[in-house]
Amino acid sequence: MSAAFAKLLPDVNSVDNIITVMTGIQSNENKDDVVLKIADLARRSKDILEKKAPELEPFLIRCENMEFGAPMVVAGIRAMYDSAVVKNNEQSTDRAIEVLKHYMDDGTLKSEHLKYCLDIFVPLVRNAVYYCSEKKKQPAIGFQIADKAMSLVFNEDNSIVSSLHSAFLFLCVEVNNAKAALPYIYSHVSGLVNENPQVSEFPLDLLRSTKVTVTQFFDSKYLLQYLYYASLVLLNVGQYRRAIIFLEHCITLPISNPNGLQLNAFKKYYIVSLILHGRLDIPSSRSSALLRAWKADRSAPYSQLVQAAGNPENSIEEVTKTLKSNATAFNEDENAELVQALIETIKYKAVLKVAKSFSSITLTNLAARAKLVDESDVIPIINKLVNSGELNASISPDSNVIHLDLPIENINRKDIDERIRKLEYMCGEVKKMDLAARLNPMLITRNLKNSSLSYFQDDEGLSMSNNPIDM
Prior knowledge:
By secondary structure, the protein is mostly helical. It contains 24 helices and 5 strands. Among the domains are: 1-116, no CATH class; 424-470, no CATH class. The chain has helices spanning 3-7, 15-28, 31-44, 46-51, 56-64, 70-86, 90-105, 111-114, 118-135, 139-153, 163-174, 178-181, 220-236, 240-252, 260-277, 288-296, 300-309, 315-325, 327-332, 336-355, 363-369, 375-387, 413-438, 446-450; strands at 160-161, 191-192, 360-362, 392-396, 401-405. Helix 5 runs antiparallel to helix 6 (70-86).
């Protein structure tokens, strides 16, 4: 809310006065302006609400009976929660969370009203669900609250990220619910939720504010958490191509003191890069600080893994040995299953390579050429290749010979054109974001002012889209 607009609202010094002002706003203002003014009143009433926090439940009941009282209800619950946390009063904190869950479930908090007070609602829910997971050790309850809150104020078409997104994805990993998380893992992030609207030139446009003063919408650690936990969800469902994009963004975020999440992301990036490409491709834009921290951390097992996967003689055996010799490190990093997936991928590629060279071959010979233990390892992989449509195969029961044939690839021209169109659109969006970033007062330097603002590199920007050919 601009300073001029805020001056139009009277000062408040008690909860009764707040109700009086709200009643006056609802009776005298156009409906389009009512929610905006009540949301601003809620922000300005923060101190008085926190002072009266133990007595706020009757106040919330009065607010919920008002047609546009949702922003003040949220502000009241946040005052209850914040006051209880500051006083380290666990019982009052639990009560505040119960009240929050009640009002979300009974329909008092409506989506069309909450969008005007996201700066109050999002931090409240984020802190509450982290409290449930970390303090109370009840991630399932935190997940229920976060899931309901996300459905109220966000959808997959928004493509905007808030600090609540990071908390929600974290809880999805904790309760192992990838299905709930996937709609909120965006291939293209179009903006950030402004959780500090009081320092913005256009605070009412909380979802998409492009012309703002130099400000921080929310702590950057939440963006890192969003990227990291999104990658974990994608890895759990086997979407390695999408996961590596998020991991790459994790390890290329500029930071002077890399934290544990970035180091964990780097470790997973090592393995996923080997799964997808058979080699390690480290982004050139990664920070030198991250590399220094990486060398100081337990990086040796992952360097050994890269060497083992690149062994031309028998990479399957070498990777298996590396997994066994560094089992403790991989288990502590929760990467043992990912290394096992790497082994299965190497086997898969080895069998497919042999299959492309023979029209018929015995299972024993195929296993030997693919460096597998015996034919019992071959059959599951052949079945997987057949089910995925990458291979046609039939086994002669008498001779133990398998007949192989590569299916003819059908190219859908319309599908290719659609993917190219998506790629062109994404490139255009990246260019717009890059230009907007160059015009940010915080980033404009004397050299930049004297230089052209034209687009220099096609790979700059915030886009996290897949190559359209891989979609």
